[in-house]
Fold 33 kDa chaperonin.
Amino acid sequence: MNNDILHRYLFDDADVRGEIVQLENSYQEVLSAHDYPVALQQLLGELMAATSLLTATIKFTGDISVQLQGDGPVSLAVINGNNEQVLRGVSRWKGEIADDASLQEMFGKGYMVITLTPDEGERYQGIVSLDHVNLAACLEEYFNQSEQLPTQIQLFANGKQAAGMLLQVLPTKSEQNDDFEHLSTLTATIKAEELFTLEAPEVLHRLYHQEEVRLFDPVDVTFKCTCSRDRSAAAIKTLSQAEIEAILAEDDKIDMGCEYCNQVYTFDAIDVAALYAGSHSSDAKQ
């Protein structure tokens, strides 16, 4: 069983489509960058599954960002993805967080920002408050506001695996949602353990064994950070040379760390001099 995979499916006799995502390795890659509290580990898993599901709904080449912000102990949680199902993510928090902390206990007065950035065309941004019972309910409200298509989302994570399902009415002229309500009731019976241990065809058979379901070829989901030495060098060059030289005079080097993967890029005085001369050494130390 591939541990990081997304499937799309359609119901032949209903104007409804679905997605199922199961994550393990990519989820562990995100968690490995920081010593996250248990509740935050679970939230990041749900957020990863959600971002993968959302990414599968977009019909363009580009990026998506699902970002949670608030005034509580957790100030930020974000997962970035693209149309190729490449994900990365990070969270910032302070203080103690209970293992069973709710969304509101973690974020206080918070909101979710979903940003779609196509390679060609205009960027779209939607915002919804975090005042619903869980992340899935917040996302359902987002779809209700932005797409106005009945949508059901199920999200699960346990610190080791993450998974999710999305069910959505197809945009048609029909205003009858009876099929969606029936299929939504079936989908709501899914258990976390089933999504963590069973392959997608078996999950769908258990849920919809009396329905005609068309399952499409799976898509791999991967973790990949976009940081690089060149990007770090570009960030350094946004500061004046005097500021950089002052830092070097105190520390002898500049460490540029990536929050997403914990990679550290180190620049010494020679590297910095090369930067401001219009180039930098490709074989400089890391």
User: Anything to note?
Assistant: Residues 38-55 form the longest helix (18 residues). Confidence is low (pLDDT under 50) at residues 279-286. The two ends are 37 Å apart (CA to CA). The chain is about 35% helix and 30% strand.
